[in-house]
Automatic annotation (TrEMBL):
EC code(s) of this entry: 3.1.-.-
Single annotated GO MF: bis(5'-nucleosyl)-tetraphosphatase (symmetrical) activity
Organism of origin: Alterisphingorhabdus coralli
GO cellular component: cytoplasm
Keyword terms: Hydrolase
Biological processes per GO annotation: RNA decapping
Annotated ranges, domain Calcineurin-like phosphoesterase: 23-215
Domain of life according to the entry: Bacteria
Protein name according to UniProt: Metallophosphoesterase family protein
UniProt-listed InterPro entries: Ap4A_hydrolase, Calcineurin-like_PHP, Metallo-depent_PP-like
Length: 255
């Protein structure tokens, strides 16, 4: 089942806007849920048809992989988005960072990859579960150095750490308060949590982010979080932005 959150058009009180003629759809953490991504993209297509002409730019906010059952399919869908929309952009999440490290065959990165949901990603690439269980760490590291298609690794390696559009900045995890956007570290933009989430001061740009799961869209005076825990809740969320308007689209369980 699909649903729309809040009003279809919702003005913001600060006069924030994206440039005229642009329409942005930013999608939160997917975590291997290709089924939900397909649903939400269809919903975005329907929303575009209702809204009319604009330059439609889809942004995936990082953490495409791990935890859910079909990370490979999510990456394959993502690789087609540039032909489906006027523009598609991708942010580097902490899970992509670790997957890329594991793909080099580094045993320490492989161990960490397994700890944060990499098992499901590995199985989605066709490694039998029995073989996965039987391999020791060194053997698994060697296997991973050849398991992921080269074009997938190249695609993930090109992900960005921040995207600035109008009055908004899009990052996976957040930003370090009081640090200019031009000086933000990749580590913070991929991994930061409490120091960002707990800070109520306004930033250089209004921040759209994922990474930190919330029960519903987390709307604050200086940021909006759109990670609604898709891999466990069946709720994958997108924020739409056009001019000074914002709205939300979300998948939902059938319950």
């Amino acid at each position: 089942m699909l649903k729309t959150l809040f009003r279809r058009n919702q003005s913001n009180s600060r006069g924030l806007a994206v440039p005229v003629g642009q329409r942005i759809y930013a999608i939160g953490d997917i975590h291997g849920r290709a089924d939900l991504l397909d649903q939400l993209l269809d919903m975005i297509d329907g929303d575009i048809a209702k809204r009319g002409e604009a330059h439609n730019h889809v942004i995936l906010m990082g953490d495409l992989v791990d935890r859910g059952p079909d990370s490979r399919a999510v990456i394959e869908r993502a690789m087609t988005l540039s032909s489906r929309y006027d523009k598609a952009s991708f942010l580097m999440g902490n899970h992509e960072e670790v997957m890329l490290g594991a793909s080099t065959g580094d045993p320490k990165m492989v161990r960490f990859f397994n700890r944060i949901g990499g098992r499901e990603t590995i199985l989605s690439y066709g490694l039998p579960e029995k073989q996965y269980r039987e391999l020791d760490l060194e053997e698994l590291a060697e296997t991973l150095s050849e398991l992921f298609p080269a074009e997938h690794i190249v695609f993930l390696s090109d992900f960005q750490d921040q995207i600035i559009i109008g009055d908004y900045v899009f990052v996976h995890a957040g930003v370090r308060p009081d640090v200019p956007l031009s000086e933000q570290s990749a580590k913070d933009m991929r991994w930061i949590r409490e120091d960002f989430i707990g800070d109520k001061r306004r930033h250089e740009k209004f921040v759209i982010h994922g990474h930190t799961i919330s029960d519903s869209v987390d709307q604050q005076r200086n940021r909006i979080g759109i990670d609604t825990g898709a891999y466990i809740t069946d709720q994958l969320t997108a924020i739409g932005l056009e001019g000074g308007e914002r709205w939300f689209l979300q998948t939902s369980s059938a319950e």
